[in-house]
Amino acid sequence: IISSGKVWNGEIENRRKNGDPLYTQLLISPIIDNDGKVVGYLGSHRDITEQKQLEQQLMHSQKMESIGTLAAGIAHEVGNPLASISSIVQVLLRTISDDFAKDKLGLVEAQVHRITKIIRDLVDFSRPSNYQIQPTDIVKGLTDAVEIVKMGKKAKEITFVTHVRRQVPILPLVPDQIAQVFINILLNAVDALHGKRGTITSEVERDSERVRVTITDNGQGIAPENLSKIFEPFFTTKPVGEGTGLGLWVSYGIVRSFGGDITVTSAWGQGTSFCIILPLNAKEYGNG
Fold it and tell me: In this prediction, what percent of the chain has a pLDDT beyond 90?
């Protein structure tokens, strides 16, 4: 096209030295002499990385909103018959004496509880919270979450480190919800270490507009092909029965409801960092 004397305009994806994507818009114009021959080319490029990232964030937000609406319908349709099944199982457990039957009904009851938890997570994500926004000390919320997670059996060989780089003001949040976000991400970090020795570091910092809480582990990391899927519902790399794939999805919804965001960076075989970003001047984003 260019050699025929036409202008070429397109977008190119490259990588920066640190591995981050770099998107540029490239324009190449042929230089034509008096005889109409192409004697050279003039090119210009413009960095459109920020524009591309904003477009991707918009698409992701729209996708999550659609999934949330779908989740509300699924939770309603599944919840009602599940309640009936649970009631019948409990009645049978109280009335039968056969040990074999009781054992099998116990397994059914355990799976019913698992499905109920999945539905509860779906509902928590898809509907506006009824909790009241309160002045919240996120540093205390983070340290409390760390203390809770440290008590788990899988965390015995793990060292937990917390750094507060700069004093953080009280923020208008829902304390239980932001604690749920911290616990979900910390539990994921614990799972990434597979019970081995390791370190999970939580770091709190802020600038003039935002607070950032970064939780980093030195576990196995997230495979590159899975990195874009981790906030999708039901996506999990854990064995069947060990994870619902809803923890990060729900956490993402909670943070977005406060006008914030969650980002993730990971290197396979080296570890993962989740960054929870919250605005300093947070308003009541529909949670009151």
Answer: 24
**Tokens 């992701």 identify what position?**
60
Longest Cα separation, the chain = 101
The least confident of 106-115, 123-132, 172-181 is 123-132
- CATH code assigned to 54-126: 1.10.287
Residue in the block written with tokens 């956490």: 251
How far CA 120 is from CA of 35, 126, 187, in Å, comes to 74, 10, 19
Could you tell me the residue ranges of all domains in the chain? 8-47, 54-126, 134-279
What topology is assigned to 134-279 in CATH?
A: Heat Shock Protein 90 (3.30.565)
Same fold, 54-126 and 134-279: no
- Model confidence pLDDT, tens digit, residues 24-35: 988 888 888 888
Give residue 6's identity as a one-letter amino acid code.
Answer: K
**Structure tokens that stand for 44 in this block:** 């210009």
SS3 string of the chain?
CCCCCCCEEEEEEEECCCCCEEEEEEEEEEEECCCCCEEEEEEEEEECHHHHHHHHHHHHHHHHHHHHHHHHHHHHHHHHHHHHHHHHHHHHHHHCCCHHHHHHHHHHHHHHHHHHHHHHHHHHHHCCCCCCCEEECHHHHHHHHHHHHHCCHHHCCEEEEEEECCCCCCEEECHHHHHHHHHHHHHHHHHHCCCCCEEEEEEEEECCCEEEEEEEECCCCCCHHHHHHCCCCCCCCCCCCCCCCCHHHHHHHHHHHCCCEEEEEEECCCEEEEEEEEECCCCCCCCC
How does residue 69 score in pLDDT terms, banded at 50, 70 and 90?
Answer: low
